[in-house]
């Protein structure tokens, strides 16, 4: 069993920054990709970013590319999402998730993930 706990969300003004953390307990995620997703009010949950199990590959949604950076610290069983130049449209609940597909290096769809955190709220004011 794997438990994922996100932290770091909050209220920030447009143009500001936040860093989200996701810490895993139980079985480690060192052999699986880790992703971030988000869900805005009234919208479906969408992919944000993913990092491969080795940390050597990353992939981002077009809406965040160049502004967000995903990274990991395997020694701490933690994955991070550094969010810069935040926009009001980034307001959402952010979830981290662990992939269940060893064969997919950087999965971007939710069906490739089996463990999810409870989410952390990010609100960007204009």
Commentary on this structure:
By secondary structure, this protein is mostly beta strands. It has strands at residues 2-7, 10-13, 18-26, 34-39, 46-51, 58-60, 68-73, 78-83, 92-99, 113-116, 120-125. Strands 2, 4, 5, 6, 9, 10 and 11 form a seven-stranded mixed β-sheet that branches. It has a four-stranded antiparallel β-sheet with strand order 1-3-8-7, with no helix packed on it. Strand 5 and strand 6 (58-60) form a beta hairpin. The protein is globular, with a radius of gyration of 13 Å. It starts with a strand and ends with a strand.
Question: Outline of this structure?
Answer:
The chain is an all-beta fold. It has no helices and eleven strands. Strand 4 and strand 5 (46-51) form a beta hairpin.
Helical amount among residues, as a percent range? under 10%
* DSSP strand content: over 45%
N-to-C span: 40 Å
What's the helix count? Answer: 0
Sequence stretches where pLDDT stays below 50 over 5 or more residues: none
């Amino acid at each position: 069993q794997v438990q994922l706990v996100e932290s770091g969300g909050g209220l920030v003004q447009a143009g500001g920054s936040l860093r989200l953390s996701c810490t895993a307990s139980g079985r480690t995620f060192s052999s699986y990709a880790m992703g971030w997703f988000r869900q805005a009010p009234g919208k479906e949950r969408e992919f944000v970013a993913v990092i491969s199990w080795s940390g050597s590959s990353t992939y981002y949604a077009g809406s965040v590319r160049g502004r967000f950076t995903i990274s990991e610290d395997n020694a701490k069983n933690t994955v991070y999402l550094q969010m810069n130049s935040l926009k009001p449209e980034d307001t959402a609940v952010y979830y981290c998730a662990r992939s269940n597909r060893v064969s997919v290096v950087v999965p971007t769809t939710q069906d490739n993930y089996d463990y999810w955190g409870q989410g952390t709220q990010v609100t960007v004011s204009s």
